[in-house]
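Data deposition worksheet. Section B asks for the primary sequence of the deposited chain exactly as it was used as input, without tags or linkers unless they were present during the calculation. Section C holds the resulting structure in token form. Section D is free text for depositor observations; keep each observation to a single sentence. Incomplete worksheets are returned to the depositor.
Section A, Depositor: J.P.
Section B:
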Amino acid sequence: EVQLVESGGGLVQAGGSLRLSCAASGFIFDDYAIGWFRQAPGKEREGVSCTIGSDGSTYYVDSVKGRFTISRDNAKNTMYLKMNRLKPEDTAVYSCAVTKKVMVVGGTCSAVYGMDYWGKGTLVTVSS
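Section C:
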């Protein structure tokens, strides 16, 4: 059974940090590009960060550049999103996803071409 399971979300004060994890199983994790997406209440889903290609090129939405870091550990079949200096506007449900399709459109991470597998999401709430 294919699974992507996120963990690490929660409530944090503005300026704090969290590290999200996404554990993959049921497929060959190494073969896929990875991405983190978020959806805030009343807003469309947004590509936060992704890493693609054999060289591990990474992309970030402008609002998180310099604060968030995406990474993966293929030996553990796990991907991460380290989030520093969190802001109230970062509050959202964060979901991990993997794909063999195109994921970078116009220099940003996008699920417009469809992702192969999605996690169910983890809630991050940043209080002011």
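Section D:
The two ends are 40 Å apart (CA to CA).
The mean pLDDT is 96.
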